[in-house]
Design brief:
Length: about 150
Amino acid sequence: MNKEEKLQKLVDISREKGLKLTPQRMAIFRILSESDKHLTADEVYQKARKDYPMLSAATVYRNMEQMVSSGLLSNLGRSGAAMKYDTNLEEHHHFICSHCGKVYDVYLSKVTYELDMEKSRLGDAKIDVSELYLYGVCEDCLNNYG
Ligand SMILES: [Zn+2]
Ligand SMILES: [Zn+2]
């Protein structure tokens, strides 16, 4: 998907979900669709601020949380200050470079797991998402630092 298609998709889903296309939200959409990275809310805020100096960090954070609840974005790791947001809504997993910290989308053709209920002690817990993180050194880092 190129960035126009990505932007259009975000706009389409917003319409479907009845989210208003405010200028702030459009600014966030534009930033997300122009980036192929997984961005933190703060990175989005820093970029948005250049065009919208009046925009507050709280507005950006709140908008991004609304996008997550509406299914426009997903978040990686699901907690913590450095939580990254992901515009890739296809089912996928992540490769994280332990050298530069960059996050790459990876597609695994088959993932199965079986919980050891005895050791896990989750009781009747309900699992919603199973995510897999692969760690290693990315191609760029391998080429640059050998
Ligand atoms: Zn790297
Ligand atoms: Zn991703």
